[in-house]
């Protein structure tokens, strides 16, 4: 019989491979996007196997269309505020700008009967201006963005009510059949999602590349740390960086509203309600820090997919819809907790994002 | 940048050669009615470490802020390589070759080492007008530089700066001046809260910068910190520079006495 190995001696091959597996697991979990992706897979499997009457979940095209519909709006708003949050600022007004986009576009269409493309760009300009105002007040007057955007949220909501006057804006059958609206919000043949989902993913990838691979992205991360102090000392134009991210947030939130309007055909004052907070949930679940300098755009897209799947999936497994918001709350806290704990793993110097 | 003829040699200069990299000429800075800095003149020469010592509130950090572009002097001029400058942002100061390392604002701990190293001076290539980062090149340069600085605990330029100790952060920030061939390195209390071993590391980094003929302005309220590094020491008191001494001219005790003497009237902290 061979002598038992002394403590600290070579580990037998099977144990060694087990260790390697553990290391790999830790590496994967330390990657924010992959841990969220894992959660999506688990949710999909759960809903699939526990679906009522075996209607399935990810195998059911109709259900996936609903998931995509919910995800597109939350997702684009989440993408809109991720870069801003990484640069250390907040935007609570996005649910207001989400409704303002279609309100301005629909009003111009109805009252002034402008060309629809012109109405679209005019609406984008207005929502971008809301972002600009948020940014100017925050960076030049020095009011915390949480307060500024809470204020503009109320202001914009009030403006929405004035524009819409209790009547939703609508797109006529002819307008909906037009190429422009179809590009914005039309169905895509043979795919379980409509155009807004593609736009959401597209902007997600675009901003992800912007944040990780351009100088502006580098500056945004730096601007989010220690109130931008280091960045400023290193010559980064912190105000300009934050201001740009405010404008991006306003523009994309408004665009998200317009995309939903194009898909749905109508938009009211109630459109986009709660979306600011849900988007923050998606962003936090996706691994972005509320204190700036940390996070990824792709994580936010994945976080939005979790919210979308949860909303539809709960219905599929016959959990009453009343539980949705409660579970969103639990999800938020669980993921924030996981992120805090996994910080220890990342401190080990592991690569923490897909884009290095 | 035009380099003008060196100004008339000052009577007390012995070690310095050539024109000063940065010169403060009769600079004052007032906040409301209070003078933070009053008629201060100071020259920093290439390859020397000038220590600036004084109690809290003596006006040291105001001098730092003026040279690094955060605030403008109320009167007087700042010259870089003999040419008067007026910076309206830290970016402009950095473009003029002034690298500042603040004790608590040296490094973004959430970002990787290479991102920190090149922050504000990223290498990029424009594609469709958009400045895309040249990541692999920056990682390579940073890796090589880390080896040169001797940060042995660092495995890769891709790891986050949160993994570095306080001294390693200071060393990395200081060594940026070498790579970017700065003219002046401003150090704001770089040794605060560092261990003996870390202190030695940071002092070595300062020596390396000096060897590249970069001028160093070293600000600290603690004479014991400044002494091992400085060639000359300026003592600041109530917004004015009360004395400039060469390290060899006075003994350590005499120097300490000089600081203590200038600070006896106001120990308000």
What can you see in these coordinates?
The complex is a heterodimer of chains A (356) and B (269). Chain A has one domain (34-347): ABC transporter involved in vitamin B12 uptake, BtuC. The termini of chain A are far apart. Chain A has 356 residues and is mainly α. Chain A is globular. Chain A has helices spanning 13-30, 32-49, 61-86, 94-112, 116-141, 145-164, 173-177, 179-185, 195-213, 215-223, 229-233, 238-264, 275-285, 297-316, 323-347, and strands at 169-170, 266-267. In chain A, strands 1-2 form a two-stranded antiparallel sheet. In chain A, helix 4 (94-112) runs antiparallel to helix 5 (116-141), helix 5 (116-141) runs antiparallel to helix 12 and helix 14 packs antiparallel against helix 15. Chain B is α/β, with parallel strands linked by helices and 269 residues long. Chain B has two domains: 22-107 and 183-263, Rossmann fold, CATH 3.40.50; 108-163, no CATH class. Helix content of chain B is 30%, strand content 27%. Chain B contains eight helices and twelve strands. In chain B, the strands form three sheets. In chain B, strands 6-9-10-3-11-12 form a six-stranded mixed beta sheet, with helices on both faces. The longest helix of chain B has 16 residues, at 196-211. Chain B is globular, with a radius of gyration of 19 Å. Mean pLDDT of chain B is 83; it is low at 1-16 and 264-269. At the A-B interface, helix 10 and helix 11 of A face helix 2 and strand 8 of B.
